[in-house]
Amino acid sequence: MQGKRILVMRPDELGPDEHKAWRHLRIDSGGPQNPFLDPVFAAAVGQVKPGARVAVLQQDGTPVGFFPYEKGRWGRGRAIGAGVSDSQGAVLHPGIRLDPRTLLAACGLSSWEFDNLEAGQHLFVPHAVEELASPVVDLDGGFAHYTDRLRASSPGFLRQTRAKERRLARQVGEVRYVHDARDPEALRALMRWKSAQYRRTGRRDRFAQEWITRLVDLLAHGDDPECRGLLSVLYAGGRPVAAHFGLRSPTVLSWWFPAYDRAYGKYSPGLVLQLRMLEAAAADGVRTVDLGSGPARYKDSLKTRELRVYEGAVVRPGPGGAAYRLGREPGRAVHRFVRGRPRLAGAARRVLAEAGRLRDR
Prior knowledge:
By secondary structure, the chain is of the alpha+beta class. It is 40% helix and 26% strand. The protein folds into 2 domains: 182 residues, Aminopeptidase, CATH 3.40.630; 147 residues, Aminopeptidase (3-Layer(aba) Sandwich). This is GNAT family N-acetyltransferase. InterPro entries: Acyl_CoA_acyltransferase, BioF2-like_GNAT_dom.
């Protein structure tokens, strides 16, 4: 370790030089330029989560790695922005070799948990307990090339969605799409629709958590081209009927918070929005739209391929690590058991949806 050291900093303590080094290392790693692994995202989380930190790995005074994380009680660590981050890990020089437990010790962590670790994270992938599929849409060849593939892989999907868009225009009013909307009311509407969806399906309402709402607001007002929030809105008859708030870099758009007004559900405004958004993204230089892990029928229709992401944890020996295993591993094992059995997983979703319906009565 001669000439090497690890500094732990708050994300807002990183200056322009560190941001530049972080991004150069990210490019050198050859991974997709996912905005969740950009210093701007880490800095935004740092403003809403006091436990956010970044470990800076230095070699002879030069940064050769950045490890963003959150530190909780008893040294329990999580990926930065855990709960809403769709791409996690460390940004390292390709030649770095380091025992991850040594890294955790320098950060004062007894464990570090991840649920969307990107592929190629050689430090952490050996500690994964599950491999998940994260569907993506490739737009390298342009939108026309993509729709040709879509017609071949999902016959009727494109035709039916466009027919519903025409019906929406006839029955509700002019359909208008804004790719980069600066509309606070539309963002508020999106949050209301999404909260209602979470409750209706029996899932935890993310927008009931103040830090997530504040994080989205911060990113919505950002203007860094390497990582910024993007609000896309579909209007019909002058009112928003569907919206999506995502995070984008110059080449990658992460599908994050989509929702629509259920009063217009028969027109499938969410799918209309999605096709419009893919077309506009392709024209704006986006080459990949990451739809995120988790099952959804529309993702199967739209995807062109899948990335691999991982779930698991690095745990150090000692009381803190033992406490993590006792508190977290049994629940994680049950979750894996259910998710690996489609009929059981379907039954679980139905129970959650019924619980949500009863709660909203």
